[in-house]
Amino acid sequence: MADTPNDTLGLTRPGPSNAPKINFAAKDIDVLEWSGDLLAVGVIEKDVERDEEGHFKNPLLHRLNEALGGLLGEASSEEEFSGKSAQSIVLRVSGLRFKRVGLFGLGQSASRAVAFVGLGEAIAAAAQASRAASLAVVLAFSEDLSDESKLDIASAIAVGIVNGIFDDNRYRSDPKMTLLESVNVLGLGSGPDMEKKLEYAEYVSSGIVFVKELVNSPANVLTPGELAEEVSKIAEKYNDVLSAKIFKEDRMIELKMGSYLGVTAAATANPAHFIHLCYKPPCGPVLTKLGLVGKGITFDSGGYNLKTGPNSSIETMKNDMGGAAAIFGAAKAIAQLKPPGVEIHFVVPACENMISATGMRPSDIVTASNGKTIEVNNTDAEGRLCLADALFYTCNLGVEKIIDLATLTGACIIALGPSVAGAFTQNEDLAKEVIDAAERSGEKIWRLPMEESYWESMKSGVADMINTGPGQGGAITGALFLKQFVADNVQWMHLDIAGPVWNARKRIATGFGVSTLVEWVLKNAS
């Protein structure tokens, strides 16, 4: 990362990336012929059923148990393993080509991508715990699957394994390297289509890892300028399809981005950077133009409406650029996939929301680039002020569809919990596209209403609008605010990702959003 005004704050600089370097390969070999450290078997509850003599009915488990002299059956009985979701059992074995065998439960049935991503994560945890350098994955029920579903399942498992194995240790004094080097997928087929699907998973995973590293980085390292520098590096690395423009304050003034400038122009020592990354296919005509807009607040103090108290979460506000990170992670994956026929604009108004004697005050009025005026009744609703100008800018690029991603409201977390993003759109076709993409990718998105009657609560007595409404329906009024800056001829969706961007238990980023965005882009490219 490049030098910043805060380069010496805390004397902290990140170490090298610990991004996994795993070779994924599909093989058509007998399970008992595979040689390596850990054989991981995914099972549903039906697979562990026994016959009257206590033998597994499932052919694969029956063969494994026979080869192990009944050890698998004994251990699963003793540990009451029934194949329920999130259950697992790992055994050290001898006399076979592999050192360990594990059963990993998927519940009563498994058909959704989210289940197989979770399976991959569980297998990765077992591989890490056993210090495995090589593992193989096989499903006890693979014979019941269609050829098309096998491709998608292999990809989802691979993404889950990278998700689960990645340990962001750049800020530790004694970092431990990831040991896992190779993963073989058994029993799901092989050939060019499978190789392509595993390569797809590799590219998506690289984007997710990039997101995690960005969001995990503290605000004394990842300033708006640093974020712009990281994006510039991605553009340079994939300069056959990516190009980047970085605007500073003088250009923001020319573009009349008063809403964005109100947040950042006079309140922080780290200046704002407006980032516009563009993907163009390496060959062929452009048939569709898409826009992805991300909230990029690298630290949110709340401003004069300071985040205070035990539930303010100020200590996690480095993650307020999770939307920006998600679209740039998607850009990294897309630059490697190189989909034809689609041009994509990735737009982020990056800045900090800090406190200063010259900063924005409650009751100030700012003027957005589309001419609308906003009375700021809460400086801690700054993300929407920045997104207002970013959305208007993106509409003027001639895009047909826009998705914005933002850690916008705590209200969305209250409504949907920590694992589900809220989707807001009035366009039925776009809603179906994105929700289908999320289903295929294994990410959780739920559509919420755009209740127009709530806009009355956002009217100002002196300006066109205020930036926050009453406490009720806060996620909805946030979406309605953003709608004021989107052109009528542009299909638009707002994704509030305040919950799923962050794993509160582990205190790390999740990489949420990349998989869905890549799936959506590819659907629009096809």
UniProtKB/TrEMBL annotation:
Name assigned to this protein:
Leucine aminopeptidase 2, chloroplastic-like
Question: What Pfam families does the record tag this protein with?
Answer: Peptidase_M17 (PF00883), Peptidase_M17_N (PF02789)
One of the entry's Gene Ontology molecular-function terms is: metalloaminopeptidase activity
Look up the record and report any one GO term of the cellular component aspect.
cytoplasm
Q: Which reaction does it catalyse?
A: Release of an N-terminal amino acid, Xaa-|-Yaa-, in which Xaa is preferably Leu, but may be other amino acids including Pro although not Arg or Lys, and Yaa may be Pro. Amino acid amides and methyl esters are also readily hydrolyzed, but rates on arylamides are exceedingly low; Release of N-terminal proline from a peptide
Task: Name the encoding gene, please.
Answer: LOC111450256
Q: Which organism is it from?
A: Cucurbita moschata (Winter crookneck squash)
Q: Which domain of life is it from?
A: Eukaryota
Name its GO BP terms in alphabetical order.
proteolysis
